[in-house]
Amino acid sequence: MTELSIAAEEFKLRHERVQAFLRENDLGALLAFSPPAEHKWTQTGHVAYLSGWSNYDRIVDSVVVVPVVGPAALLLTGMDFMLEQIAEVSPLQDLRLVKPVDPNSIAAHRKGDSGGPRDFVAETRAILDEAGATGKDVGIVGLGSMSVPFFESLRKGFGSQLRNIDDIVGRIRAVKTPAEVQLMRKSAALSDLGFETMLKVARPGMRGIEVIAEMERAVRREGADHAKYWMASGPSPDWCDTRLDLKPHERVLQEGDLMASCSYVVYKGYWCHGQRTGTLVKPCQELSDLYGIAREAQDAGLAQLKPGARIGDAGATIRDVGARYQFDMPGSRYGHGIGLDYSEQPVPLNDTNEQPIEAGTTVVVHSVFTLPGSGKMFVPLGDVCHITPDGPEFLMNFTRDLFLAGA
């Protein structure tokens, strides 16, 4: 096993917290499901959190079974070579290949084979037996990203023994340890690198896709699991003339253009999702005026994000500051938690959430406005923050002021 990004002792503490929950709820085991890591826009972080297997080698459905006593086990469909890959990143010793539910899954054995490994249900029952918890209920988390056939196989196999429970894994994942925050700092630094690359390479006459390609290349070269940026651009001075593309941005950039870009960067499983806005070669006063309003609203909201404060208070503050300038905030959603998943607890970050913000959580604040008159979407700033006892700490270092690319 190579050196772990998160210490083995930290994984043990995670498992112990789950086991305390199991005892409190008279459960024999927890079954935590995640789809392949590539399914990145849904929950993929539960298995990563409990096993350390967060990278893109994880191309199969997998579960971590945490019994009420004893070590956790990682169950996966797949082939023997994957066990070697897992050993490089996970402290778990109990790794078990199982038969797949999906007939398209990568696996050495197929559903219905008379030989080979057992299925997820049979292997989980074996773990219950080993823990002296035969016949106890099994709590399940990860249903939101589970396929119907997978769930049906569990329901058929466990019957009334399967219990849908509060997502204890999502809850404990929300508060990050120092080691996790350090990984998020690295992800944020890689996100910054992409934006810094944009400043250096963007020139009039280039297509947006060419700029984005250089940004993503620079970030992947430094070890990112995943790097994607989108771009918006248009002629100055009216933001309503900008075009946003998540697909390849084919527009040819011109001197003075308004620009925005947004990052989706993953490093060792941990996300950064930042957003920045500016111009190409020369500044634009009209954009500066609009941005000043959005920045004022966002900064006022960020000042509210202190441990114990109501999550909705920050949203109401952002909404009300924007409203003074006729900026609408549809849905009043201003962000979401972020970590091993693009979106995780705490959610939603909006103006109605009564829950208190917790110290140690990590969030992205990217207020979504519509401009007066036109209704054009305006999301000029996205900040990834670690909530400390004193309030939000920015994890990204790239300027929050309007950037000037190609200068």
How is this structure best described in words?
The protein has 407 residues and is α+β, with helices and mostly antiparallel strands. It has 2 domains: 167 residues, Creatinase/prolidase N-terminal domain (Creatine Amidinohydrolase, Chain A, domain 1), CATH 3.40.350.10; 228 residues, Creatinase/methionine aminopeptidase superfamily (Creatine Amidinohydrolase, Alpha-Beta Complex), CATH 3.90.230. Helix content is 32%, strand content 22%. It is built from 10 helices and 19 strands. A 6-stranded mixed sheet has the order 4-3-2-1-5-6, with helices on both faces. Strands 7, 8, 9, 10, 11 and 19 form a 6-stranded mixed sheet that branches. Strands 13-12-14-17-18 form a 5-stranded antiparallel sheet. The protein is globular and about 70 Å long. The model has no long low-confidence stretch (mean pLDDT 95).
Spatial order of the strands forming the largest sheet: 4-3-2-1-5-6
Query: Which second-level CATH architecture of the largest domain applies?
Result: Alpha-Beta Complex
CATH class of the largest domain: Alpha Beta
* End-to-end gap: 47 Å
What name does CATH use for the topology of the largest domain?
Creatine Amidinohydrolase
Main beta sheet = 6 strands, mixed
Strand content: 15-25%
CATH superfamily of the largest domain: Creatinase/methionine aminopeptidase superfamily
Which descriptor suits the 3D outline? globular
SS summary, helix count:
10
Question: Total domains, how many?
Answer: 2
Q: Stretches where pLDDT falls below 50 for ≥5 residues?
A: none
Percentage of residues in helical conformation: 25-40%
Total beta strands = 19
As a whole number of angstroms, the C-alpha radius of gyration is 23 Å
Strand-pairing-aware structural class: alpha+beta
Mean pLDDT: 95
